[in-house]
Amino acid sequence: MKPHLLSLALLLAVPAAAGATDGNWFARVGLHAVDPQSGNGTLAGGALSASIDSDIKPTFVIGRRLSPHWALELLAAAPFRHTVQLNGVDALDFKHLPPTLSLQYVFAPDARVQPFAGIGLNYTLTFDESETGPLTGTRTRVGNSFGPAAQLGLVFETGRAWNIVADVRWADIDADVSVDGVDVGEVSVDPLVYGIALDWRF
């Protein structure tokens, strides 16, 4: 995780741990599916067409209502795992972590159903590449990515501390790919991320 995102995560978490339970903090635990766009670019000067499959993992959010209409949240997740196909053949598995910081606007903060929109920054940390098929015997690396992110969602108030949240996100994720230290191109992931979570206010 980038140092500034880690610092912000600690900044958000410390007041909660210290007992700052004014009802404006929230924590969310849920599941999100990362669904990369179809057709993820070409490598090796256009000779190889890349595609990346989807994955579902648990996600975690810590955030705070700054005012009735504005909120700040940080999304974290268990590592997502994807398979890259080159010209339709499995070639590479890799994992990534996608911490995302978002500023949200809540349209109807007093309603039982509260639509919200968010905009922010995503940092995708890629690791644990494993080559197979046409890449067997090579050292293949997928680079990290930093870019904008957007979000639309709904909070379903239950009248208790626990609520339900559904959202869809988009992130601009473009990663350089190298094989045996040689840059062979860039994959454009740009996924839609669908999720549902339990929301706890404290």
From TrEMBL:
Check the record and name the InterPro entries matching this protein: OMP/PagP_B-barrel, OMPW
- Swiss-Prot/TrEMBL keywords: Signal
Keyword Nucleus: yes or no? no
| Keyword Amino-acid biosynthesis annotated | no
Biological process GO annotation list? transmembrane transport
Question: Where does the signal sequence lie?
Answer: 1-20
* Cellular component, GO annotation: outer membrane
What's the name of the protein? Outer membrane protein
